[in-house]
Amino acid sequence: EVQLQASGGGLVQAGESLRLSCAASGFTGFTFDEYGIGWFRQAPGKEREGVACISLSDGSTCYSDSVKGRFTISRDSAKNTVYLQMNSLKPEDTAVYYCAADLSVETLMKLIPPVRYEYDYWGQGTQVTVSS
After folding, report:
1. What Cα–Cα distance (Å) separates residue 125 from each residue in 6, 59, 69, 105?
2. Which DSSP string do the residues of 22-81 spell out, in sequence order?
3. Closest CA to 114 of 94, 93, 100
4. Comparing C-alpha atoms, which of 122, 118, 119, 115 is closest to residue 97?
5. pLDDT tens digit sequence for 99-119
6. Whole-angstrom Cα distance, residue 14 to residue 31?
7. How far is CA 44 from the centre of its chain?
8. What is the pLDDT of residues 10-55, one digit of tens each?
9. Nearest 5 degrees, angle CA 16-CA 20-CA 91?
10. Cis bond leading into 44, ω under 30°?
11. All residues at 6 or more sequence positions from 13 whose CB lies less than 8 Å from its CB, including other chains
12. Which of 16, 22, 46, 111 could share a disulfide with 12, CB 3.0–4.6 Å?
């Protein structure tokens, strides 16, 4: 079964940057490039929301309006890893960030922002805290 390991969270001040990593493993019958990956976040008392997605085969991406222009999702197929570069962080970006994967890439890339129910595999979260 696919396993995802998110890392890179931390405490930063507003305006600073962080890069999150999502390392994937455990593919059975499929390769890394056949999946789509989404990044989601959940703040206390709020619903989990999608912020970015990427097709691992062609690198096409999507972003929610709240992070467009500040966050960049990318992949390194040699390392089976997806990154979320977060710049110009704001206090409202404070949340637990999760990465998720699914094989239905064509569907995933049509859903902007990413929809949590479309993803089958989830990693544990990594906390991002942005102080003002």
Report:
1. 6, 23, 23, 22
2. EEEE--SSS-GGG-EEEEEEE-TTS--EEEEEEETTT--EEE-TTTTTTEEEEEEGGGTE
3. 100
4. 122
5. 999 998 888 888 889 999 999
6. 38
7. 18
8. 999 999 999 999 999 988 888 888 999 999 999 999 999 999 999 9
9. 40
10. no
11. 130, 131, 132
12. 16
- Cα–Cα dist 37/111, whole Å: 12
- For tokens 């305006």, name the residue: 15
Q: How many CB atoms lie within 10 A of CB 14?
A: 13
With a cut of 90, say whether residue 95 has pLDDT above it: yes
Amino acid code (one letter) for 106: E
Amino acid type, 55: S
